[in-house]
């Protein structure tokens, strides 16, 4: 993928190295090392993953780039820079909204930077199981700990969506990765599947409803 996308991911490495201390003040600046660890081509974007390390502490950064940054935009449509700028502002508003809620159920992914030269959105990349992974583990193993973790995950995802829809309209600008209605439908379908698959699946049935 590096060859297909060209030199931009490598050039961004230098920008991230320059800004790493601002992104993560807890890291030791003299020993900072930044490495590009992955480039994934998606339908409408390219996701780059970078690791920042000072020898003791590691942090992961994810960068979103337009998939066709060098292709002129069709007449009447937004340029890649404008489109990503709007998405950056929307993500920043979402981050600020959920940070202000101070609710332990909701993790907040920090939006770190917007680089207009490429263009690119820089955000932190958190490790941990995705809701999809939790669902697959629960459907496969049926173990009580997995079921409880899945129930909490689906319940919190539903609560997140309710909180998301409470964001004032001026803040809810554009999120290019997912439609909240589609996410809600996916949660309901998966919860219904677990309700039908697991013994004593009433909790998941109530979530689906």
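-> sequence recovered:
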């Amino acid at each position: 993928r590096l060859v297909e996308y060209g030199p931009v991911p490598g050039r961004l490495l230098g920008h991230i190295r320059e800004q790493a201390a601002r992104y993560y003040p807890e890291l030791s600046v003299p020993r900072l090392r930044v490495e590009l660890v992955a480039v994934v081509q998606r339908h409408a974007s390219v996701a780059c993953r970078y690791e920042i390390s000072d020898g003791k502490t590691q942090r992961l950064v994810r960068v979103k780039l337009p998939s066709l940054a060098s292709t002129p935009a069709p007449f009447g449509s937004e340029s890649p820079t404008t489109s990503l700028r709007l998405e950056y502002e929307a993500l920043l508003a979402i981050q600020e909204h959920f940070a202000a809620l101070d609710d332990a159920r909701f993790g907040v992914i920090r939006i770190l930077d917007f680089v207009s030269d490429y263009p690119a959105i820089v955000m932190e990349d958190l490790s941990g199981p995705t809701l999809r992974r939790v669902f697959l583990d629960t459907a496969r193993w049926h173990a009580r700990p997995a079921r409880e973790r899945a129930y909490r995950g689906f319940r919190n995802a539903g609560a997140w969506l309710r909180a998301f829809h409470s964001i004032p309209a001026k803040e809810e600008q554009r999120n290019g990765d997912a439609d909240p209605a589609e996410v809600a439908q996916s949660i309901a379908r998966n919860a219904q599947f677990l309700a039908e698959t697991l013994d004593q699946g009433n909790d998941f049935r109530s979530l689906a409803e």
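The CA atoms of residues 112 and 123 lie 5 Å apart.
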